Amino acid sequence: MFSSGQTARQAVDTYQALGSTDLIFCAGGGIMAHPGGIASGVKSLRQAWDATVQGTTLESYAAEHHELAQALEAFR
């Protein structure tokens, strides 16, 4: 379980450290504080994990995924 300060930005490091998606990723701030609202916060996390598992950089994936792009800008 990962909590406290989690946003879309932590997906890559978390996945690289564990090599698995078998985890609980609690990202209250990454969801609730997303500039597009709660639904966009959830989408941004899903997009970050999709990119990470596919081996794509977050920045590259964000070029076609607005919610992730907003999260990367908001949570520098």
SSE map:
Elements: H1 11-18, H2 28-32, H3 38-54, H4 58-62, H5 66-74
Helix pairs in contact: 3-5
Which terms summarize this structure?
mainly alpha, 76 residues, 58% helix
Detailed description of the structure:
The chain has 76 residues and is an all-alpha fold. 58% of the residues lie in helices and 0% in strands. The chain is built from 5 helices and no strands. The chain has helices at 11-18, 28-32, 38-54, 58-62, 66-74. The longest helix has 17 residues, at 38-54. It is globular, with a radius of gyration of 11 Å.
Biggest beta-sheet profile: none
Percent helix among the residues?
A: 55-70%
Straight-line N-to-C gap: 23 Å
Output the radius of gyration. 11 Å
Residue-averaged pLDDT? 92
Compact overview of the structure:
The protein is mostly helical.
